[in-house]
Design a protein that fits this description.
This protein is of the alpha+beta class. Helices cover 26% and strands 30% of the residues. The structure holds copper (II) ion.
């Protein structure tokens, strides 16, 4: 995967493997039966399955098969939901939920965040988090580091290809941030491509987004993923990560 996002890589790989297995099973079954059960009578179609228009062919019914193909995919979906639960609960953790990121850091305190667990169970845990703000408006992002030290959070701007001059958010490796977000006009949604997270920003309402800048997070673009008018496609920003 090109998105260097350890948090979802394991889950992604797991889903791809399951999709491959399901595809191989389904298409093998489909092609096998398409060829195996072809009529061997050439052009003579004398209704070998005794199908009558408007009548359900009960004589071909197989209860065991019906139950199997209903129950098996259902169990698979329950399993996939189960394994996605922890990573999703972590990404969407409410602000007052101290399970994953503790409480707001005191001055000088560090989040010391880390990726815990392996594969599809990987989540980010932090000792505490820093609060900053993101505001969206047509068609620019505004970052506000509030009271945070510049070493933890800083802003600047940069000119990049295609997008022109965009705001840059400087965050520190190993730190976890809680972005409190709002919009000054329509709905937007910052998408931190490398973190694999996004959330809507709404007019007159606050939403929040955890930015878990774990060790090894690289610089990345931030895009708007909620269509917001003419310049939506170039409503970008940069996340710059330092150690
Ligand atoms: Cu937009």
């Amino acid at each position: 995967m090109t998105i260097q996002n350890a948090l979802f890589d394991g889950l992604w790989d797991y889903y791809i493997w399951i999709s491959l297995l399901v595809s191989i099973f389904t298409f093998t079954w489909l092609y096998h039966h398409s060829f195996w059960y072809r009529s061997d009578k050439g052009g003579e179609h004398d209704n070998p399955d005794e199908i009558e228009v408007g009548v359900f062919p009960k004589h071909n019914d197989d209860m065991k098969l019906e139950v199997a193909w209903t129950v098996a995919p259902f169990l698979l979906i329950v399993w996939l939901t189960y394994i996605s639960w922890l990573p999703l609960a972590s990404v969407w953790a409410p602000v007052d939920d101290a399970d994953f990121h503790g409480y707001e850091c005191e001055e000088g305190e560090s989040s010391n965040n880390a990726l815990v667990g392996e594969g599809y169970n990987a989540i980010v845990e932090s000792e505490c988090y820093h609060v900053m703000e993101i505001t969206g408006k047509q068609w620019v992002w505004q970052f506000d580091c509030l009271e945070l030290a510049t070493e933890l959070c800083d802003t600047s701007s940069e000119t990049i290809e295609v997008y022109g001059t965009v705001p840059v958010l400087h965050l520190k490796e190993g730190e976890t941030y809680l972005a409190i977000m709002t919009s000054e006009d329509v709905t937007h949604a910052p998408w931190f491509l490398g973190l694999g997270t996004k959330e809507d920003v709404l007019y007159g309402q606050d939403t929040s987004l955890w930015l878990t800048v774990v060790e090894g997070t690289s610089d990345q673009i931030i895009l708007c993923t909620e269509y917001c008018g003419d310049a939506h496609s170039v409503m970008a920003a940069m996340l710059n990560v330092h150690s």
